Amino acid sequence: MDPSRIPDEFPAPSFRGAQKQAVADIRDAFAAGNRVVLVRAPTGSGKSLLARAIMGAAETAGEAAPSEATGAYYTTPQVSQIDDVEADDLLDDLAVIRGKSNYDCVLPGEHDTPVNRAPCARQQGFDCSIRHRCPYFSDRAIASGNRFAAMTLAYFMRTAGSEVFRKRDAVVIDEAHGLAEWAEMYATIECSPERVPVWDDVGVPDVAADAGSEEDALDRTARFVETLRDVAIRAKDDLVGRPELDREEVARRDRLQELISELGWFLEDYRDPQSQTSWVVDQPSGEGSAIDIKPLDPARYLRHTVWDRGNRFALLSATILSKEAFCRGVGLDPADVALVDVEHTFPLANRPLYDVTQGSMTYEHRDETVPKIARLIVRLMAEHSDEKGLIHAHSYDIADRLTGDTTARTATPNWRRGRRVPTPRCSSP
Ligand code: SF4
């Protein structure tokens, strides 16, 4: 990486706010030899432009030896952020790739079939005559060969170890504050009727109560996982051996393949005497019920899915409060991470913060919490009845639920859900 290129690679025609200072600080942080630079940039500061500037410093194929990593990845947990990148003219040299389910097959009669359920996924040995025109495989080939590739964090993690998306010189993770939660979510192996297609074919023990005299709950879980994995392999082999599958069977086969690999990863680590991972098992309802198996330190999971995928990293976020806590959560040593704070240009006096937390917003608690937030907003609006206001929701789903809340809608008929507005690019008209 050549950090000195970062200011010149800034894609907008001019800087606004604190952007000029930010690119200079980021350049200096990389130039000082830091492998990871954490950029704390407020909402509206143009993080995606900073991301593109950093990516432009990655080695190009012409500059590096054939064995060296070149080019850059842009990745983010937020699908809407990838949509914005794709729509942004200033970022048109980023090649976006999405998961197969986002593309439709283009074979005659299959135009409504997503690529992951298409004939090439359903039929054994299917040789697609128009694969070169297939939207998914074309986008994948373009992103793989392009200097800059953009994808969701889910896709990025899934492609760890792939020959198509190999290590690159620079990786930018936008909205990086949720990285630890993503690691935990991905590292947790959920054995439940919803996630295990062969659930009814195995007897699920009470792993704490049924442990043998020399065993604990983890050992008993490992024995159960061995059986489950064998059953899953047989079911998968049966499907793979058939000449053609329907869409449901394809979904079942793909989930079985994922499950077999997740269970295999756990068993391999559990049996490895050198392994440093401590596993925890959670089965609150006992025999016959779901079991969650998770590593005590999910940050390790990020090593091969993220940290091995690039030479240098920029982690961008508006909401990382503590560098130390963030680094611990994602398996980085704070001493090896530089922090660049991008100045907020909006006066502090004009942006007081009031903590009015109403509850958890994780998916399972949302039904309970959203109506409380809606009621709070109604009270606030009544208090400020002659003013306008803006509510920044974390997702379209939350925005839809808030605007759809009957009590709130009745009390405030002018309450509308707006569209996401891209950050303005230039300082003056
Ligand atoms: S490779 Fe061919 S069969 Fe498979 S999704 Fe693409 S167009 Fe359809």
Key traits:
single chain, 429 residues, alpha/beta, Rossmann fold, 3 domains, seven-stranded parallel sheet, three-stranded antiparallel sheet, 10 strands, 36% helix, globular, disordered C terminus, binds iron/sulfur cluster
Structure summary:
This protein has 429 residues and is of the alpha/beta class.
CATH architecture title of the largest domain: 3-Layer(aba) Sandwich
DSSP strand count:
10
Please name the fourth-level CATH homologous superfamily of the largest domain: P-loop containing nucleotide triphosphate hydrolases
The value of Rg in angstroms is 24 Å
- Order of helix and strand elements from N to C terminus: HEHEHEHHEHEHEHHEEHEHEHHH
Helix fraction? Answer: 25-40%
Going by helix content, strand content and strand pairing, the class is alpha/beta
> Which whole number gives the mean pLDDT?
89
Q: What is the rounded distance between the termini?
A: 34 Å
Biggest sheet, open or closed, and with what strands and sense? 7 strands, parallel
Strand order of the largest sheet: 3-4-2-5-9-1-10
**Count of separate DSSP helical elements:** 14
Which cofactor or ligand species appear?
Answer: iron/sulfur cluster
CATH topology of the largest domain, by name, is: Rossmann fold
pLDDT below 50 for ≥5 consecutive residues: which ranges? Answer: 423-429
- Write down the CATH class of the largest domain: Alpha Beta
Strand content: 5-15%
Specify the overall morphology: globular
